[in-house]
Design brief:
There is one protein chain. The protein has one domain: Rhodopsin 7-helix transmembrane proteins (Rhopdopsin 7-helix transmembrane proteins), CATH 1.20.1070. The protein is built from eight helices and two strands; from the N terminus they run ααααββαααα. It starts with 38 loop residues before the first helix and ends with a helix. α1 crosses α8, α2 packs antiparallel against α3 and α6 runs antiparallel to α7. By secondary structure, the chain is mostly helical.
């Protein structure tokens, strides 16, 4: 996450009045201003965070690449749901691919990669926020339509693999449009005190207003609207399933459809578990003026790591919850020459 949007993006200083709306805190160029009692806390963060990010990168890259490979290579895996899972894995893979650059930025404590790469990294960072929840929203809509058609004993001729490709393309276009403002404002900020370069969102004046607007923008489009949509869909879905059990003439969901619905629900629950603290921190940032203490910085880094971790968890969920994926993956491994 960019330093301007996540508390704790830079080391706190003795002066507690940190301007969280600017790319860097006041007096951050004075290393002697860090309280001695907090020195070991920051030293631990300096070592622990790259380790956590590296594990997320390695596991996420391996797992999501395996998901992409299996879905593309196994003929039986070419289903509507798996098309959305494929795009979700691509989004997660894209994020984990650039995570090493964020690790290098953290270790170096300055941005050496130039303005263009800064825009690319921050754009992909924000794609990760929007694309994951949007594909899960589409998957929830798809599950609702499947349940609705099953309850009504109707066929769904429009629900095809090709249609899923078109919908996935539209989701990517929507995500690109939504992320475009962040791409425009992303850039390299040079500290006037020590010349240190940072890759941040550089807003025009008044910075505080633009900062709050960007956080509300992300909260509404990246969380409130899609999560509300998902909650409504699953509430309606559960209502229909309950009525289906009461109606003896209605056909129950077959075993395969039920398993897929459960898998989508669990993947969604894990996504919300990882991302809800991040969006709650937005509400806190907008409604309070927290001092940049070691506790606040530690919590902010934990929240950021938790949101990053979502990019490596989904492959394990597919492996545990989807028999067809597990069988296809094992079959692929058997075909690989020793």
């Amino acid at each position: 996450m960019d330093n301007a949007s996540v508390p704790g993006g830079a080391l706190p200083v003795c002066n507690d009045s940190v301007d969280r709306y600017s790319p860097t805190p006041a007096n951050s160029s004075d290393p002697s201003c860090t309280p001695p009692s907090d020195f070991y806390f920051y030293a631990d963060l300096y070592v622990i965070l790259p380790v956590i990010y590296s594990v997320i990168c390695a596991v996420g890259l391996t797992g999501n690449t395996a998901v992409i490979y299996v879905i593309l290579k196994a003929p039986k895996m070419k289903t509507v749901t798996n098309m959305f899972i494929l795009n979700l894995a691509i989004a997660d893979d894209l994020f984990t691919l650039v995570l090493p650059i964020s690790i290098a930025d953290h270790l170096l404590n300055y941005w050496p990669f130039g303005d263009i790469l800064c825009k690319i990294i921050l754009s992909i960072d924000h794609y990760n926020i929007f694309s994951s929840i949007y594909f899960l929203t589409v998957m929830s809509i798809d599950r609702y339509l499947v349940v609705w058609a099953t309850v009504r004993s109707k066929r769904m001729p429009y629900r095809t693999y090709r249609a899923a490709k078109i919908v996935s393309f539209c989701v990517w276009v929507l995500a690109i449009i939504i992320v475009m403002p962040f791409t425009v404002f992303a850039g390299v900020y040079v500290s006037p005190d020590d010349g240190r370069k940072s890759c941040v969102l550089s807003f025009p004046s008044p910075e505080s207003l633009w900062f709050k607007t960007s956080r509300i923008y992300t909260l509404v489009l990246g969380f409130a609207i899609p999560v509300s949509t998902i909650c409504i869909l699953y509430t309606m879905m559960l209502y229909k399933l309950r009525n289906m059990r009461l109606n003896s003439n209605a056909k129950a969901l077959d075993k395969a459809k039920k398993k897929v619905t459960i898998m989508v629900f669990i993947v969604l629950a894990v996504c919300l578990f990882c991302w809800t603290p991040f969006h709650l921190s937005t509400i806190v940032a907008l409604t309070t003026d927290l001092r940049t203490t070691p506790l606040v910085i530690g919590i902010s880094y934990f929240i950021t790591s938790l949101s990053y971790a979502n990019s490596c968890l989904n492959p394990f969920l597919y492996a545990f919850l989807d028999d067809s994926f597990r069988k296809a993956f094992i079959k692929m491994l058997e075909c690989i020459p020793a």
